[in-house]
């Protein structure tokens, strides 16, 4: 945890931004996996943890935006609980550690909220993403679960995202810790990679590192020779010489900050000429993004720069014709990289996307956000100092998608479909690092320490003990 004053300062800022009403911030509860007493590993809600610091289940934070007062609701452990859990701090002790003085049993919350509602006060809450939280909110606020999204507080979503988006120095230290975990996971994967190894052996070893040194993975690890499937969670494949292996994985630091990296390399440890050609196109796009990212830039400009660099490279190897500009304008790149260039990274691996797809240019999108069910779009995301975003271009040869585009007559004269046929067994390549936007430009998390990324660097490590 950070110092208690970090949390009280954050709460004060949030109250000032919201101004009126109450701000309800439920933490996560234990979520049963296969029967009530066997829960998934506990994962705290990131926004609750950001404002209240506590990585403990079944707590609820309430802020009075007008007075700035903070209260924590929860239940002290009984002797019956302690038999199973061992001695636990009281709610009062937990609260004191994050500079909160007012504590109440959870049962009091409903009464306090009803009283505020009777007085006509607005209760601000974020759109819930877990079933348990939806049911709680529904009961506390008297709003049917299906209506919860209509009554969410867009003001609160904006204010929270704006704060969480801009990482403080102490948060950057945590992001670097998460980088270190990701670094170890990926280096281990590279060393384990050789023909005959099962993909899941690598995925399991990586996840082991994330659990040994952090609070686990930041999302389920992707280890696949079918890199063309963007999020391929099947890892039953046996590694074969000649194929490429795509590894996309990250960890959460003990304090709950995430890393997210992808590397793609040959199972045999040596790139073929064709693999190398495509790889270097993706690497150029990755490097281009790292060159141009600077504060106040719109995310869609970064995305477009990556597309242009990829298109240039594909023209160079004869898979596209004409100019890179025309290829990007035609939409042809959406067939070969059907995803965004990156996403925010922080306490969530897609940072703040619990509030909808991210956008941080609050001045211009509040109205659109209010009308939209998903609220915000990365297309309107403006990068600010303190933003961390992933830089993850890729090229994917997805036979079903290419066939569909061809059948529909798309990108005629731009895409060389005949040549593309030769790539139907190629797979896909993605390269991903994490960039911190600074006051003047950006820097890659990890500093001087970099995961092997060039052909030469990878060939020196893959399959070697
Ligand atoms: Mn990512």
Overall description:
By secondary structure, the chain is of the alpha+beta class. The chain folds into 2 domains: 4-152, Creatinase/prolidase N-terminal domain (Creatine Amidinohydrolase, Chain A, domain 1, 3-Layer(aba) Sandwich); 169-461, Alpha-Beta Complex (Creatine Amidinohydrolase), CATH 3.90.230.10. It is built from 18 helices and 17 strands. The strands form 6 sheets. The chain has a 5-stranded mixed β-sheet, with helices on both faces. The radius of gyration is 24 Å and the shape is globular. Manganese (II) ion (MN) is lined by residues 260, 343, 390, 392, 432. Manganese (II) ion is lined by residues 260, 343, 390, 392, 432.
What's the SSE blueprint?
Blueprint: H1 4-18, E1 22-26, E2 32-35, E3 38-39, H2 46-52, E4 60-64, E5 70-73, H3 79-85, H4 91-97, E6 102-104, H5 107-118, E7 123-124, H6 131-141, H7 148-151, H8 154-165, H9 169-192, H10 199-213, E8 216-217, E9 222-224, E10 244-249, E11 251-252, E12 261-266, H11 273-292, H12 299-316, H13 324-330, H14 333-336, H15 362-371, E13 388-391, E14 394-396, H16 399-407, H17 417-420, E15 428-430, E16 433-437, E17 442-444, H18 455-461
Parallel strand pairs: 1-7, 5-6
Antiparallel strand pairs: 1-4, 2-3, 4-5, 8-11, 9-10, 10-12, 13-16, 14-15, 16-17
Helix pairs in contact: 1-8, 8-15, 9-10, 11-12, 12-13
This protein binds manganese (II) ion.
